[in-house]
Amino acid sequence: xxxxxxxxxxxxxxxxxxxxxxxxxxxxxxxxxxxxxxxxxxxxxxxxxxxxxxxxxxxxxxxxxxxxxxxxxxxxxxxxxxxxxxxxxxxxxxxxxxxxxxxxxxxxxxxxxxxxxxxxxxxxxxxxxxxxxxxxxxxxxxxxxxxxxxxxxxxxxxxxxxxxxx
Length: 166
Fold this sequence. Notes:
Blueprint: E1 2-8, H1 13-23, E2 28-30, E3 33-37, E4 43-47, E5 52-57, H2 62-69, E6 74-77, E7 79-80, E8 83-84, H3 89-100, E9 104-105, E10 108-113, E11 117-122, E12 129-136, E13 141-145, E14 154-164
Parallel strand pairs: 3-9, 10-14
Antiparallel strand pairs: 1-5, 1-6, 2-5, 3-4, 7-8, 10-11, 11-12, 12-13, 13-14
């Protein structure tokens, strides 16, 4: 199985996914959302990587690329549609963890490790380890730098409890 990332029109990721699943049923598409809080404490779901979907296929053929290009909202397969980059190594491990935990994530418990790394110890992202970019204790958000995207994409996670490891 090969894994890739496709860039689509931001805000229309779910619509693209629905069209793509009908147009190319042999391909599995993934769009991840996580739970966050507003300033007033109300929970809402937000995309983890706005404008991006991941997909897996047996082989990325020219025919499959053509089918994807014909779907409304398609921009490109990363890095470039003419030379798509497979997701491999550490990035693939992270993506498989995301896929295993489902496309909608609730609140996780996070463990802070020395050197400003985090480890999720319960919840939908159990086992995820990442580098902390920013901590917002008031909102209980932690901004993590993902290894999945080569450009160091950041995403916020909502956490419940923090365990400090000495």
